[in-house]
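Entry for the shared binder. Reason: the reviewer on the internal report wants the predicted structure included alongside the sequence.
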Amino acid sequence: MEIKVLVVDQERTFAEALAARLAAEDDIEVVGVILVRASLPHLASARSADVVLVDGDLPGAIDQLCADVAGGPRPTRVVALSASAESERIVSAIKAGAAAWVRKDQSLGHLLLVIRGVVQGETWLPSSETGNVVRLLLSEQENRQSSGRLLATLTPRERAVLTCLAEGASRREAIATQLHLSTNTVRTHLQNIMAKLGVHSALEAVALARAAGLGPREEPGPRRNPRDPPPRG
C-alpha cells in the first residue's frame, strides 16, 4: 500500500529534489509539492495525504497544518523538516500535533524510516534532543499541576474573575459588567486572587492561570480591545 506524501517548503530546489527522491521509492506516492514563501494558506488538500512534510522554519506552519488535517477522513501525520533542532520548538510542534521532527541535513534513509514509522503511529525526535524535550514536557506538566493546585484555592467567584482576565477582559469595569458585579467588588476579588496566588499583578495572575490551561478558547468569547489599557495590578 502506497504512502501518500505532500511536501510543503519554502525552498524550491530542496522541495523538488526531495519529492523526486521520495517518488523513486516503490511504496511512496508524492501527491504534491507546495512552495510557500510567507504565511501558509489553509491546506484542506493536506487531508488527502498520509504524511505531510512541512518546513518547520516557516512561522506558524506546523500549528496550522495540524489544525487543517484534524478531523479529516483519514489520519494524516505532520512531519517537521528543519535546519535546526531546538528543544523548545520541538515541544511546541509536538503540542500542536506533529508526529516527528527531522533535521534537513539528515539522510534520506533516516527520513524514509520516519515516514514509514509515523504512518504506523510512531513518534520520531532528534536523538540529541530527546532528553531535553522530555524534560521540558515534564516541567510543563509539573507547572500545570502546581498552578492547578493554586487555582483550586480560589472561590468560584474569584475563579470567574480570573477567567475573564485570562480570556482578555483587561478592565475592571468590563469584568464587573460581564459578571454583574460592582467595580469595587471586582477590585476586592482581584486583591484576594493575587494574595492567594502569591503574585503582585494581574498580569502575573493571568500568566499563572494560562500555565494551568485557563485562557482563550477557540469559540467566540470576550476579547481584549487593543485600545484598552493593560490589566492593573
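Summary line for the report: Residues 217-233 have pLDDT under 50 and may be disordered.
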